[in-house]
Amino acid sequence: MKESAVAETPELDLEYAGLRMLCVDDETTFVDTYRKYFAKRGFEVEIATNLRDFEKLLCAKHHHIILLDYYLDPDKVSGDTLMTLVEEHDRDASIVVVTGRPSLETAVASLRQRAFDYLSKPVKIDELATAVNRALEAKGLLRLSASELQRRIGEHIREGRKSKGLTLAQLADRTGLSVGFLSQIELGKNSASVETLYRIATALGVQPGDFFQNQG
Asked: Is the same domain home to 26 and 125?
């Protein structure tokens, strides 16, 4: 089954700028889809459809993420061999295995060889992106987009307000900001200046930096 095409998006935050990805799969449909999606978001993406190209690219430079098909059929090479090569030449890379022949045996083998995640084809592109994000977050490499940062700040403010038992109107009274503006901030639809965040933090009895912390 072929992976569906990635929808065009006019403007994207380049949250992966400066990061390198290696996509390894003998099916060009998959690697082309991965490259199109992740390159538009800032990744430097390289692809390999056979063992020779994989080894060449693997030895040439460090890759932050490797999307690895468990089997390369033309070369009759399995994930066990491929991940051993990663361990030898680029052991700091995070591996996300994507396979069309999933099994408990290969899943266990992949995770034992330190694959970060194990996904089955056909994989939805947003599920793959989530796995990539989790792998980057685990290494402290994920750079949040402006829109995602706004959303997370808004969530923190909303949860802080509710934990204090305050309505939007009450928070507006405490900060001197309008209810509409506060609502837009909480929904992640409007950015807040440092001064605005300071006023909200003071009203909630927290530090402005608390709004930037990862949620559990």
From this structure: yes
Per-residue model confidence as pLDDT tens digits over 80-89: 899 999 999 9
**Residue 96 belongs to what domain range?**
20-138
Number of domains in the chain: 2
Is residue 4 assigned to a domain?
A: no
Distance CA(133)–CA(139), nearest Å, equals: 10
In the listed set 86, 116, 138, which residue is the last one of a domain according to the structure?
Answer: 138
Burial 49-84 (b: 16+ CB within 10 A, else e): bebeebeebbeeeebbbbbbbbbbeeeebebeebbe
Residue 75's Cβ-side half-sphere holds a number of Cα atoms within 13 Å equal to 21
pTM for the structure as a whole: 0.62
Six-digit token string for 78:
């399995």
